Task: structure prediction
Amino acid sequence: MKAAVWHDIKDVRIEQIEEPVVSSSQIKVKVEWTGICGSDLHAYAHGLSKEAHPISGQKPPITLGHEFSGTIVELGEDVSGHQVGERVAIEPLIYCGECYACKRGYYNQCNQVGFVGLNRDGGFAEYVVVDENMVHVLPDNVSFEEGALVEPAAVSFYAVRESKLKAGDSVAIFGAGPIGLLTLLSAKAAGATQMIVVDLSEERLKKAKELGATTIINGSRDDIAATILQLTNGGVNVAYEAAGVQPTMTNAVASVRQGGQVMAIAVYSKPVSIDMGQIMFKAADITSTLAYRHIFPEVIDMIATGRLDVKQVITKKIQLDDLIDQGFNQLTNDVKQAKILVKPTNN
Ligand SMILES: [Zn+2]
Ligand SMILES: [Zn+2]
Result:
């Protein structure tokens, strides 16, 4: 079968590999759509660990792709909770089940947490074998395209659920990439009224406006926090930091009101400093979330009932053969793009 296999930095090959085989407790899925994530771009440009993952036991070459939907085509002999033909979205977390966090159900905090598609063969392929507990059935009115968006939507929706946001609150979202846009949709669904989005790109801000942002602010301005304080009469209730750099964190801290909260969703490649004097003066808090846990069924329900219109973040659909040029390279160079979906088969 055809797959996009990571061999090394800037060396992802679309090549023929063996179809995966199910073990007794696993499920084989024919992939319909797979989204490209920032972490796929990071793996392409900056690399993956060459060590075998402690849980999956797999090391590169590894098939990328962790945001995917598909159809069940085969069940291992011990699988009883699913059927061939079911349409599914995949929750790609790999965890040990034995550590302090796992034993308490906090599997996203597992000290060996990994992902299908980064630490084990993933969804940029015609077929994937996954564990039974990774499979979530999609109702008929949720499309495969929307199914591929459940994973990134879960990141944002979980962060909003874990934040202090209450209906009627104001929010600021720093970063209007796919996660920032899905955070905007989640905050709107959770009842936020004033929704301010900050980004460096006018095209992304335009998209945020289409998705319901009440105010958009260009991140190159030097009065961002002052503008937000003025618009909200003293600051937002929650600032979501979805950019992962110092200036956005500084502005997020400066934009929250007394008793407000900064919720960090981004991945930080470098440490950032935080003005604790401001946090203390406002008795605000600062917290973060990593991925999600126990939330896929709720996200699927939110999509099925029309409360989370995730397909709005899709800007392009491509074939697997075009993954590097029209996927990775375009996302790196063209800020108009939000979520690009990839079709691994030609039908
Ligand atoms: Zn991702
Ligand atoms: Zn664990």
User: Anything to note?
Assistant: The longest strand covers residues 26-35. The CA atoms of residues 112 and 242 lie 24 Å apart.
